[in-house]
Design goal:
The complex is a heterodimer of chains A (about 100) and B (about 200). Chain A has about 100 residues and is α+β, with helices and mostly antiparallel strands. Chain A contains 4 helices and 3 strands; from the N terminus they run H-E-H-H-E-E-H. In chain A, strand 2 and strand 3 form a beta hairpin. Chain A is elongated, with a radius of gyration of 15 Å. The chains are: A alpha+beta (about 100), B mainly alpha (about 200). At the A-B interface, helix 1, strand 1 and helix 2 of A face helix 1, strand 1 and helix 4 of B.
Chain lengths: ~100, ~200
């Protein structure tokens, strides 16, 4: 297949950690920082950077609260993020011709 | 992007969906504890009724309730400290558990204490609520075995109508063992196997 037939991929999502985060959030209502860290198998700092990028793009909403005395961060997919994730999946399909 | 990278992306998506699916399965430990406590309390009540020690029955139920609530509190506290992910299905299931839990409290304790009906009617009314719980859970979790369990409770509850006297309490204990304890333990073993395979 010629490269011009491939659909362009969203550069915000096109990173293993950010794609993993969106894949988790696409199937749930919300996930906390600890869960996302364990699921994506990354460090605190790395995950924070990727979450900030996704939030900046309006793909996820981050809520920071306290659980007892400890800070608690939970993330959820926004409508814009859901649409972008769907678009990404659609674009991926173009790499697998029927 | 190459086809190889696209394949890797799809692999990431699949792996995350699979992990999250497993993580959204709630712990069944608390269901087993309550199930065993209620079964033991029912059998103990039956034995006490055979010995005509009816006044001692409330001690059995108070002890079972006390142990159950303490265990619920400890397990709930431990669960709250874990990294969490919550799904819409979990939210729906949690509301269903709360609704049926309140229903059980009303039909098993509040209404008989208010003398709206006698204690002998509890097995039938309890079975109706349990049937609703399992049948709906079967739909929510897309599990035919839970749906069949709902039907089992309705049929079992109807059968207890034909058993008279103290034997009804014993029949209800058997119904509870087969319709609640055994499936809860089977579910717990299944989760353990899946966790070990991860």
């Amino acid at each position: 297949m010629s490269p011009d037939k491939f659909a362009p991929l969203d550069p915000v999502i096109h990173s293993p950690v950010r794609l993993a985060v969106l894949s988790v959030l696409a199937s749930v209502k919300q996930a906390d920082f600890g869960y996302l860290k364990a699921a994506t198998d990354t460090t605190d700092g790395n995950l924070s950077t990727h979450l900030a990028k996704l939030e900046e793009s309006g793909y996820i909403a981050i809520k920071k609260t306290f659980k007892g005395r400890k800070p608690y961060t939970s993330c959820a997919l926004t409508e814009k993020g859901r649409a972008a994730f769907r678009g990404y999946l659609k674009a991926l399909e173009s790499y697998y011709p029927a | 992007m190459t086809e190889e990278q696209a394949r890797e992306d799809i692999q990431i998506i699949k792996s995350m969906l699979e992990k999250t699916k497993k993580a959204t399965v709630e712990s069944v430990g608390i269901f087993i504890i309550w199930g065993v406590l209620v079964t033991v309390a029912m059998v103990a009540s039956y034995v006490l009724s055979l010995a005509h020690l009816y006044r001692a029955q409330w001690i059995v139920w108070a002890a079972a309730g006390g142990i159950g609530w303490i265990a619920s509190f400890i397990l709930g506290f431990r669960y709250a400290r874990r990294p969490r992910v919550s799904s819409y299905v979990q939210t729906a299931a949690r509301h269903l558990y709360i609704a049926c839990g309140v229903g059980f409290a009303l039909v098993c304790f509040a209404f008989p204490m208010l003398k709206i009906y006698g204690y002998e009617a509890i097995p039938m009314i309890y079975s109706v609520v349990a049937g609703i719980l399992f049948f709906t859970m079967g739909g929510v979790f897309e599990s035919p075995s839970l749906t069949w369990l709902g039907l089992f409770w309705w049929v079992g509850g109807t059968c207890t109508v034909f058993i008279k006297g103290d034997a009804r309490q014993l029949a209800f204990a058997v119904l509870f063992l087969v319709g609640y304890d055994v499936p809860a333990v089977a579910l717990w073993l299944k989760h353990r196997r899946e966790a070990a395979a991860r």
